[in-house]
From TrEMBL:
NCBIfam families xrefs: QueF-II
Alphabetized Pfam families for the sequence: QueF
Record-given protein name: NADPH-dependent 7-cyano-7-deazaguanine reductase
Active site residues per record: C53 (thioimide intermediate), D60 (proton donor)
Superkingdom, natural source: Bacteria
UniProt key word Endoplasmic reticulum: no
Catalytic activity: 7-aminomethyl-7-carbaguanine + 2 NADP(+) = 7-cyano-7-carbaguanine + 2 NADPH + 3 H(+)
InterPro entries per the UniProt record, alphabetical: GTP-CH-I_C/QueF (IPR043133), NADPH_dep_7-cyano-7-deazaG_red (IPR050084), QueF (IPR029500), QueF_type1 (IPR016856)
GO molecular function: preQ1 synthase activity
This protein's pathway: tRNA modification; tRNA-queuosine biosynthesis
One Gene Ontology CC term in the entry: cytoplasm
Keyword terms, alphabetized: Cytoplasm, NADP, Oxidoreductase, Queuosine biosynthesis
Annotated organism of origin: Alkalicoccus daliensis
Lineage per the UniProt record: Bacteria, Bacillati, Bacillota, Bacilli, Bacillales
EC number: 1.7.1.13
Amino acid sequence: MAHNREEEVNLLGNTNVEYKMDYDPSILEAFENRHQYRDYFVKFNCPEFTSLCPKTGQPDFATIYISYIPGEKMVESKSLKLYLFSFRNHGDFHEDCMNTILNDLVELMGPRYIEVLGKFTPRGGISIDPYVNYGQPGTKYEKMAEHRLMQHDIYPENIDHR
């Protein structure tokens, strides 16, 4: 049964939103996927992700790409923005941030399939681009995740100094 969208999410349209400066997965909100009969991708491009190096405290900047095939629930985009913003003062390695984002979104939505790619700007002459994914165990999506993991970097990028 479809609910009113107003009853499903609280942050969208709310002008008194607090921008949390510390990691907080409780910010995330989900709403009903009204098209569960169909597989389709939803992709978020998040070019202003910032976290902190856990050793030096220096900022790390990245574009985060989140793609998923929804199951029963979908993530609301404003809550996702605020959630990603909550990493601003969070000290963690790039790989840990991407796995944390994936884990939190899997817990929130129970997607059929999801992948998270972080393309971090270089620091010290090296850029790091962690890729993580998940497919529902025992389904074709689990096989899809395995295949996409093996193929995720089949077309390496040109050096562009971002």
